[in-house]
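Internal tracking record. Fields below are filled automatically when a chain is submitted to the structure queue. Please do not edit lines marked as system-generated. If the sequence contains nonstandard residues, flag them in the REMARKS field before resubmitting.
Queue: standard
Priority: normal
Entity type: single polypeptide chain
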Amino acid sequence: MDKVIIDTSIWIEAFRPQGEKATADRVKGLVLDNRVLLPGLIKAELLRSAKSQAEFNQLKDLLSGLNYLPTPEPFWDDLSSFSFSLFRKGLAIPLVDTAIALLCLENNAPLFHRDHHFDLITKVTDLQTIDLTR
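SYSTEM-GENERATED OUTPUT FOLLOWS
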């Protein structure tokens, strides 16, 4: 089975007590099937949003069980070029979202997200996304 990257927007929805059950179930299934790649940027975004030290520690422990996706040094030059090309196409996408999209593209991993920036990127690149209806 293919690996996927889950954006912070989906993790937050899955963790919310009143979040969408379908989203939480899909995340749980992906985690249990060992299909999740976790980039450091998403890990950092999630950990910084913890409400307490105890929640931080619990979340860090949970995330440590996922497949960590390291960022090789050449990625940063690739990111500069990718961001520049998006900007030239009229898309001013936040750099973190641009980086996540590029990580997906470079690793042939679809992205599970709830962020309109990625929808814009899919219109001008080969970025693949996950739809709950699939």
